[in-house]
Amino acid sequence: MYRVLATDGMAKGAVQKLRDLGWEVVEEFYEPDVLAEKVKEFDALVVRSATKVRVPIIDAAAAAGRLKIIIRGGVGVDNIDVDYAKSKGIQVANTPNASSASVAELAIAHMLALSRFVSIANVTMREGKWEKNAYKGIELTGKTLGIFGMGRIGRETAKRADALGMKVVYTDRAEAQGVPYKMLPVDELLKVSDFITFHIPATKGQPPMVDAAFLAKMKDGAFLVNTARGALIDENALCDALDSGKLAGAGLDVYQEEPCKNERLLHHPKVSLTPHIGGTTKEAQNRIGDEIVEILLKTLK
Fold first, then answer.
1. Cβ contacts of residue 128 below 8 Å, gap of 6+?
2. Is 229 a catalytic residue?
3. Is 199 an active-site residue?
């Protein structure tokens, strides 16, 4: 009987499929020191973003010799020391297709929330205020969206922005094939974009890409949206740009530290905030679960 440990939960349908096959699935979160012991008892470890699978956990699993695969339910694998795991004979996989549409829709939702003051107006309404004249918004139609990363999520975001009448441009390491959008150098993209959204990984150990110099190159009054990785952005530099009026607003789903403890950011009236829920839709969770089951069957059967 195969044993699967899902530390950050798993779709009920996927759990039931595995149990119907006679597999044991344990859904429980463990702190790192406890996880290093528990992981020795399982054939597969399934995580989302909350669990960090670092060297000590991998060493413990490798020493026991039972763990065959670590699966990240989602796009990125930066919470797993991938190369080290592979060097120990443990496979690493993720589910890059399952949550693309969900993350793209959240990016668009933040853009709409920012452009029409949905986030802050919700707060002031609940405080008994009627600030109708303070919230003169803008339309997305006719605005330019600059996308960092034209991968799966970037493409889904572009399709939705296109449907809203936005002009889409992008920048990436290589030109994307089969997309009807113009690729621009970073500095030119920053200069022309009314909205910028990020769909790229963060480089471990590197300083934030979005620093004061980056923000200074952006178009005056532009908006920034990040549903990718919190490490991409210097949060204090972002707040400075919002305070000065350089940027009109920011929509964030990811943070340098999670849960976010940056009080300046948490209480900023020009920021729309969500708690890392890009892939948290019923549809995405079901697709992630199905993809995890497929990976497990290919790996362990």
1. none
2. yes
3. no
The one catalytic residue in 48, 110, 276, 287 is 276
**Rounded to whole angstroms, how far apart are CA atoms 127 and 78?**
40
Helix intervals (H) in the chain? 12-20, 32-38, 55-64, 82-87, 100-115, 118-126, 152-163, 186-192, 212-216, 235-244, 263-266, 282-300
- Domain positions in the chain: 3-98+281-300, 100-273
294 is catalytic: no
State the CATH architecture for 100-273: 3-Layer(aba) Sandwich (3.40)
Beta-carbon neighbour count of residue 28 at 10 Å? 12
The SS3 assignment for 233 reads strand
Domain 3-98+281-300 sits in CATH at: 3.40.50.720
Grouping H, G, I as helix, E, B as strand and the rest as coil, residue 16 is: helix
Strand partners, 73: none
Strand partners, 153: none
Give me the pLDDT at residue 82, please.
95
The yes-or-no answer to whether 3-98+281-300 and 100-273 have a common fold is yes
Output the pLDDT for position 96: 83
**Is 118 within 8 Å of 289 (Cβ atoms)?**
no
Q: What is the pTM of this model?
A: 0.88
In which residue ranges of the chain is pLDDT below 50? none
Q: What are phi and psi of 268, to 5 degrees?
A: -80, 130
